[in-house]
What we know:
Elements: H1 2-24, H2 32-90, E1 93-95, H3 102-110, E2 120-122, H4 137-146, E3 151-152, E4 162-164, E5 180-182, E6 185-187, E7 199-206, E8 212-220, E9 231-234, E10 241-243, E11 245-253, E12 262-264, E13 268-270, E14 280-282, E15 295-297, H5 306-322
Parallel strand pairs: 12-14, 13-15
Antiparallel strand pairs: 1-2, 3-6, 4-5, 5-7, 6-7, 7-8, 8-11, 9-10
Helix pairs in contact: 2-4
Amino acid sequence: MSISLKASLTNRLASLAGTATRLIKPRTKRGVVSILSMMFLVLFGSLGLAMAIVSQGNLRTASTNLHVLRALGAAETGMGVAKSRIEDAVSRFVVAKGTIDSAFASRLWNGSTTAADGTVQIRGADGYNEFSLPQGIAQAVVNRHMADLNTVAAPGTVIQTQLATAPAGVDDTRYALTNWIVTPAMAVEGSAGDSNPAAYQITYAPLANGTDIRVFVTGYSSVSAMGSSYSYARNASESGDRSLTRTIVQDFRIVKRPQHAVMGPSRIMIGKNVDIVGNLGATFTDVSFANGDPIVMKSDFFGINSTLDQKLTDLFNGIRQFDQDGDNRLRVNHPTERQGIPPSTRDYDNN
């Protein structure tokens, strides 16, 4: 009985000791890993979001640069076309007056020349049709643009080329207020699927000095209902997006510049070893007299030796007699011109 009680007390004490041990054992902290995981998740998520934003910004920047280059390219193309149109129109007006002053140039542009301006000859159109001869250079430019076919609709542009007055608020001390020329938008390429074509629009503005024409060319990245399929910013003063365009400006002057290297009212004499690049022009008319040639040119090869002089003399005589097209040459295969070529069997040195 005593042994059993002692064993029971021992077991009880051991049990109490174990319980006490468990009670005083420090507890471990839970949830630290979850907090660190969430912190790293937020950190890496922020980095990923930042990379995505930067990548998107790079794409938008690259796209903007492409559209800017496209608009600039269209504007440069339009300026080349404008230059060609003005040169074509001006070349049709042949005037007797030598000096193109401010008043005369203004009348040429407007089509209001008088008998006091001398003879003004207007040539016909070359390569396109027009209903009637233009009275002035401005109308000639309009007629030339009317033959353009690749026009497209764009907001703020006209549907066909026309003469117009200056916009409101234009400085009349710098610009003329009438006979401006406004063209519709002209596509420089075809549409491809959903991509609208790049285009340009030209405005010809005569300046107040009478002799100068200022040309404004606006290039569109692509034409749509808003003027461009790409909107790069919001216009704070308006409710819509602004289309991406670029505008370039260049001035042209109406002048009379003969395209001749040498031109004069008397006979022109050109000696040896003279190199002239360009056309020759002489208004000398007394050609019925002896030695009345308007242009006399000395050959670089005469005077070297007598045999060569004889050969050249025969050649020039043959050209004078048998040349059919006035180019001072003899064609070997031509049935008439070849008769003037000295025969190769002719003995020039009596050997």
